[in-house]
Amino acid sequence: MIFVGDLIDRGIYSKEVVEFVIDGEHKSIFGNHEFLMLNYAKDAMIRNIQSMWSVSKKAYGGLKTIRSYAGDEDTLLKHIDFIEKLPKYLEIDN
C-alpha cells in the first residue's frame, strides 16, 4: 500500500492513520497537509500559539488533527519526526 500524502488533517483519526502507516511500514509521500502540520502543530499544541490551521473549523482540518493528539505529546513528537522524513516523491520500478 502506498499513501500519497494528506495522512493528517482529513478527519478525526489523524493520529491513528499516521500510526497505521508507521506500524505497517507502508510507503507514503509528504503532502501539503503534512506541510501545514509541521508548520503549525508544535506552535498550537506545545506553545499555545494559534493560527488559521489550528482554529478554523471550515478552512483546514488542523483543529480535528490537534484533537486526535490531545494529551499525547509523545506520539505527536514521534509522528512529527516521521512526517519530517517523508519523501516528496517515490520512484517505483516497473
Q: What does this protein structure show overall?
A:
The chain has five helices and two strands. Helix 1 (14-23) crosses helix 5 (73-84) and helix 2 runs antiparallel to helix 5 (73-84). It has helices at 14-23, 32-45, 52-55, 62-68, 73-84; strands at residues 2-3, 27-28. The protein is globular. The chain has 94 residues and is mainly alpha-helical. Strand 1, helix 1 and strand 2 form a beta-alpha-beta unit. The longest helix has 14 residues, at 32-45. A two-stranded parallel ribbon has the order 1-2. The model has no long low-confidence stretch (mean pLDDT 88).
List the helices and strands and how they pair.
Blueprint: E1 2-3, H1 14-23, E2 27-28, H2 32-45, H3 52-55, H4 62-68, H5 73-84
Parallel strand pairs: 1-2
Name the shape in a single word.
globular
> N- to C-terminal separation?
16 Å
**Unreliable runs:** none
What structural class results from the helix and strand content? mainly alpha
Query: What is the strand content?
Result: under 5%
- Mean of residue pLDDT? 88
Q: In what order do the strands lie side by side in the largest sheet?
A: 1-2
Keywords:
94 residues, two-stranded parallel sheet, 5 helices, 2 strands, 50% helix, globular
